[in-house]
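Input record (Table S2, row 773):
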Amino acid sequence: MDTSFATEDLAFRDEVRAFFAEAYDEELQGRLADLSTYKEAVIDWQRRLYNKGWVAAGWPVEHGGTGWNSTQKFIYETERAAAGIPDVIPFGLAMVGHVIYTFGNEEQKARFLPRILNSDDWWCQGYSEPGSGSDLASLKTSAVVDGDDYIVNGAKIWTSYAQHADWIFCLVRTSTEGKKQEGISFLLIDMTTPGINVKPIATIDDHHSLNEVEFADVRVPIANRIGEQDKGWTYAKALLAHERTNIAGVADSKRSLGQVRTFAKKEINGGVALIDDPVFQSRLSSIDIDLMALEYTELRVLAAVSAGGAPGAESSLLKIKGTEVQQAIQELQMEVAGYYQGLLVDDLSVEQLGHSFGRAARQSYMYGRAATIYGGSNEVQKNIIAKAVLGL
Amino acid sequence: MNFDFSEEQVMLRDSVARFIKEDYAFETRCSAVASQEGMSRETWQTFADLGWLSVPFAEEHGGFGGGAVDTMLVMEEFGKGLLAEPYLATVLLFGGLIQKGGSQAQREAHIPKIIDGSRLGAFAYLERQSRFEMADVMTSAVKEGDHYRLNGEKVVVFNGGNADYLVVSARTSGEQSDTQGVSLFLVPADIAGVSLLSYSMMDGQQVANLTFEDVQVPAADLVGNLGEASALIESVVMEANLGLAAEAVGIMGELNAKTLEYTKTREQFGVAIGSFQALQHRMVETFMAYEQTKSLLYRAVCALSNGDEDAAPVIHALKVMIDRAGKLVFGEAIQMHGGMGLTDDLDIGHYAKRLMMINTTFGNGDYHLGKFNALRYARTD
Ligand SMILES: Cc1cc2nc3c(=O)[nH]c(=O)nc-3n(C[C@H](O)[C@H](O)[C@H](O)COP(=O)(O)OP(=O)(O)OC[C@H]3O[C@@H](n4cnc5c(N)ncnc54)[C@H](O)[C@@H]3O)c2cc1C
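Output record (flavin-adenine dinucleotide complex):
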């Protein structure tokens, strides 16, 4: 057992650091922070990663991935988060990409994978429906064969960033016979197809990410189906497990915790810095301790996966603990902000308001409530562990 | 011993409850929040007409002569309705300071006007650096002849943008965080030298940053004794904390009721999600948290009404409980609503934001836990 870095790992770390320092420049950061330029800035950034050969960390080499081992992935993630760089938008690169190179046919791979790698297409995930959240397999959006096409009718909900998307990957019902999991198919749908309507959902973080996507007689070529008809659930499940490994967010949590410490040094209560308050220290430390353990839990899972195991129910553990830690840090950040945690405005300057991070703390805290809900809620993850790990 | 309310108190509570239920729908509240002033003047006038603005004031000024119990009952109902109007700022803080610390002339000049709805007030205490320490005051007041000259800045002043009059804390002697040397001044909002920056917070409350530049305040507008405002502030804030706690209890009750209702109707896997034991036990936890918080609230109300020596630790304890239980209750409410819990059209998230702001107002749970520790384990040797 040894978790120290070899010389070539240290060289890799230096290379990553140097690249981020140069490529993630201030001009780009400014455009990422501005809603009106956000989308093109994301694409710009992801192309810089692509040109460096680093955009698809989890993909196999033959499909354009990095082929990194678990140590390299760990180093990359740590450096990315430490530099305050957001992760790539997951829907194409971390989600549907895997499904396509694993279960798609040659034509689909050739058509979609290069465009995902080069961020030519923005993808969104159309799984959840108003009546089907945790019980995803009960979904009702229907696809009926008509010649070379499916005709799709129904509605998806909570579709993140559908407003930006060129494509949506959907689970649809192609059969109502047998078990509900058995009549589901996996379709790739062009968002410009007539009959698709995207409606925004206002959320408690005051930032537009969620949408409803309605389908009225939408024609989708059968050629856009992944794998076999009625077998979509199998493909989706493989993806769900994958989605959950990325969800622990250890590296980002470490950075956020560091930020909390920095802010807490500047908050003074009657002459005493918050960071020196024993009550505060206890709260900070208990999160710190959880995170120390979680980092190694994640490493153990990563190591097992790179030794050939598929991420299984362990990824549920990472998801639950990872999101609990994230939420605890976000909560602490709010408390450090004191009264300013309620800041809403974005048209007044830091100088006018008298505070720098309250608004950001509120936004990440409010959006952060969703982390225990999406990607399979934490309750559902616990059910998975109870069944698959504990055999209950 | 009994926990019954008087007939008058029941009538007061029921009339507020009826108004909230019948005339203060979530949409009505949201449109008040979205308006320029962040409140409805019409609603405020209704409160005056119904006598609610008079609750804590002495009968000699036209008040209802109510005590902690009455304030609690009103605030709990307001909590259920997510009140946008500045009852805390105008009645409990501004009015409270004048009632408790003001001269006879000041009371006569302001309290009847608060009661008839024609005067809105605010208490400007917070500064950029002061966090939860109310005595951390850098705004200065320097005596010059028969005037004081005020300089400094107050931030996040509740109702600061709409207030006609402000009570402002300023340092007249001592160092930045000294308890001694803080004084209060009664200042008309439109006085020369005050500039105002209004904005709203996540709970829909309008607040303002106020800058004072060589503001001339007549010596007669000092509230209470020179340099001795800290004790007055503490006692008014204790009562305000009680009101806030009652508001929080009202909110927690609503959140629990709405979540329970949702889990009975939302179906997944062919059954109501409320049938899952994993959720049932947690709803029992939120139910117990609510009951425990209510008990501590009653304890605090009794302590304060009886003038008990131990009122201060009970209020600290209550603030800690509100913080912990509040987070549990709204956290579970959002979680059990799933994606719906994240939507802005639903009231759940708005109750959560108000609870967060209640928690942080006058010090969060950790701050009060520190105070509680200090009182409980004060060394006497
Ligand atoms: C911010 C955000 C982004 C999202 N992005 C996407 C997206 O891009 N694409 C997409 O398809 N979906 C997305 N989702 C949807 C997400 O996957 C669902 O919200 C999630 O699956 C839960 O479903 P639901 O909201 O219908 O809640 P419900 O399933 O109704 O659950 C309500 C509550 O009941 C609990 N519960 C349900 N079943 C059980 C059980 N058996 N035992 C114990 N407790 C249970 C849940 O855990 C939850 O607390 C997003 C959601 C959010 C909040």
